[in-house]
């Protein structure tokens, strides 16, 4: 079983819709959870960082964490064609400045 | 967010030569930095953890004599790929965590070994 699992997609949504991206993780020692956006040929860009159960909102983005279910999700409201990218879920196992374990990413396509 | 830079952004070298990649945290200090590698259509894989003032720790399967890491200051880590071979061609990306543990990535260095 992979440590961080994501559906590879592509997930296709129309412009203006809500895109829902999901991620599960296996290590219960995971403490921090990250969502990155990666455009083709570019490095990952941090979108959200969450470490407490519940929701965290930042603009059009909402991260949801459920540690009991070992599940983290990212909602993108009012999706735009510029949101089309690969979204990487990453977890940090343990506390402190730890390296991240990445999922394989979900490719999102927002149709104009 | 915090800013991490990398240099060069791309490099082409001949097989058997060495290449040095720099990673800098521009607006914060980073006692720890991480080096990742990403092959086409794959996710990021951790290569090593760079620690300021001490030796780097390498992931299983990463040759420490081939990928030399030096964390000379609180804002600079370097990765040197020694005796590069075509199979080392990849996208090398560094990251640095801030004091609040958010991790930011540099823009990456695309290495092509001919």
Uncertain segments of chain A: none
Helix-strand sequence of chain B: EEEEEEEEEEE
Q: Classify the beta-strand content of chain A into a percent band.
A: over 45%
Q: What share of residues of chain B is helical?
A: under 10%
Number of strands of chain B: 11
Rg of Cα set of chain B: 13 Å
Chain pair forming the biggest interface: A-B, 23 and 22 residues
What is the helical fraction of chain A, as a range of percent?
Answer: under 10%
Sequence stretches where pLDDT stays below 50 over 5 or more residues of chain B: none
Principal-axes geometry of chain B comes out as globular
Distance between the termini of chain B: 36 Å
- SSE run of chain A: EEEEEEEEEEE
Counting helices, strands and paired strands, the structural category of chain B is mainly beta
Straight-line N-to-C gap of chain A:
36 Å
* Residue-averaged pLDDT of chain A: 94
Characterization of this structure:
- The complex is a heterodimer of chains A (112) and B (114).
- Chain A is 0% helix and 56% strand.
- Chain A is built from no helices and 11 strands.
- In chain A, the strands form 2 sheets. In chain A, strands 2, 4, 5, 9, 10 and 11 form a 6-stranded mixed β-sheet that branches. In chain A, strands 1-3-8-7-6 form a 5-stranded antiparallel β-sheet, with no helix packed on it.
- Chain A is globular, with a radius of gyration of 13 Å.
- In chain A, 38% of the residues are buried.
- With 114 residues, chain B is mostly beta strands.
- Chain B contains no helices and 11 strands.
- In chain B, the strands form 2 sheets. In chain B, strands 2, 4, 5, 6, 9, 10 and 11 form a 7-stranded mixed β-sheet that branches. A 4-stranded antiparallel β-sheet of chain B has the order 1-3-8-7, with no helix packed on it.
- The model of chain B has no long low-confidence stretch (mean pLDDT 94).
- Chains A and B meet through strand 4, strand 5, strand 9 and strand 10 of A and strand 5, strand 9 and strand 10 of B.
């Amino acid at each position: 079983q992979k440590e961080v699992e994501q559906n590879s997609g592509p997930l296709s949504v129309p412009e203006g819709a809500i895109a829902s991206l999901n991620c599960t993780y296996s290590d219960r020692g995971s403490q921090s959870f990250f969502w990155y956006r990666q455009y083709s040929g570019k490095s990952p860009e941090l979108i959200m960082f969450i470490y407490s159960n519940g929701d965290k909102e930042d603009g059009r983005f909402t991260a949801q964490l459920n540690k009991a279910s070992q599940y983290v999700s990212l909602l993108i409201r009012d999706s735009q064609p510029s949101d089309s990218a690969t979204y990487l879920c990453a977890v940090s196992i343990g506390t402190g400045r730890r390296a991240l374990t990445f999922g394989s990413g979900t490719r999102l396509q927002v149709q104009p | 967010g915090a800013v991490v830079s990398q240099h060069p952004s791309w490099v082409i070298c001949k097989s058997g030569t060495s290449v040095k990649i720099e990673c800098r945290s521009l607006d914060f200090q980073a006692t720890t930095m991480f080096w990742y590698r990403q092959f086409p259509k794959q996710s990021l894989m951790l290569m090593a953890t760079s620690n300021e003032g001490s030796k780097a720790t390498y992931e299983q399967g990463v040759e420490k004599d081939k990928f030399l890491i030096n964390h000379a200051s609180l804002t600079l880590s370097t990765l040197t790929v020694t005796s590069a071979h075509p199979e080392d061609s990849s996208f090398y990306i560094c990251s640095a965590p801030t004091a609040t543990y958010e991790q930011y990535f540099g823009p990456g260095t695309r290495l092509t070994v001919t």
